[in-house]
Design brief:
alpha+beta; 9 strands; two-stranded antiparallel sheet; 2 domains; elongated
Length: 158
């Protein structure tokens, strides 16, 4: 038996230190480890309970190093509402509204009326005030004509 195989055999023979009851961020280890995987790919995972009420599993190295401190849920949001979408509003609309900082219902109302968001003025303008850009998903530029003129003027002055 070579030195390295002897060391690895000793490492496999030792039982893992009991971490039951220890807290790592929002996670508390609830019981002994579970072995997952087969052969050389098997690993010990520790079942944990999160402060939000969910459960999670993590490797001891993830817990001790601080890489795993939460269950992965959006904390501060009630359990039933984590991935909830406001009724009648598509997920894409909710994401776009969040990016520009407005209410999803307002976003939907503006887009239904044909308005577009100007990233330069940070305001809604009628869609006719925007040029076309077919490389963008909406087919419109992110800036209205007035914003483009202001940017060109500022560039020339610089």
């Amino acid at each position: 038996m070579t030195y390295s195989s002897h060391v690895h055999a000793r490492m496999r023979a030792t039982a893992p230190a009991d971490m039951t009851g220890q807290r790592f961020g929002a996670l508390v280890v609830t019981s002994g480890p579970e072995r997952r995987g087969a052969g050389r790919e098997s690993r010990l995972y520790w079942p944990c309970a999160c402060d939000c009420g969910r459960s999670a599993v993590a490797k001891a190295t993830e817990l001790r190093s601080g890489r795993k401190t939460r269950c992965g849920a959006q904390h501060g949001v009630p359990i039933g509402r984590v991935r909830a979408v406001p009724s009648g509003v598509p997920r894409e609309v909710t994401a776009a509204a969040r990016r520009i900082g407005c209410d999803p219902a307002d976003y939907q109302a503006h887009t239904d009326a044909g308005d577009s968001w100007c990233s330069h003025h940070r305001a809604w303008h009628p869609g006719a005030e925007f040029g076309s850009n077919m490389s963008r998903p909406t087919g419109a530029q992110p800036y209205c004509y007035a914003a483009l003129a202001e940017m060109r003027k500022a560039k020339r002055a610089a």
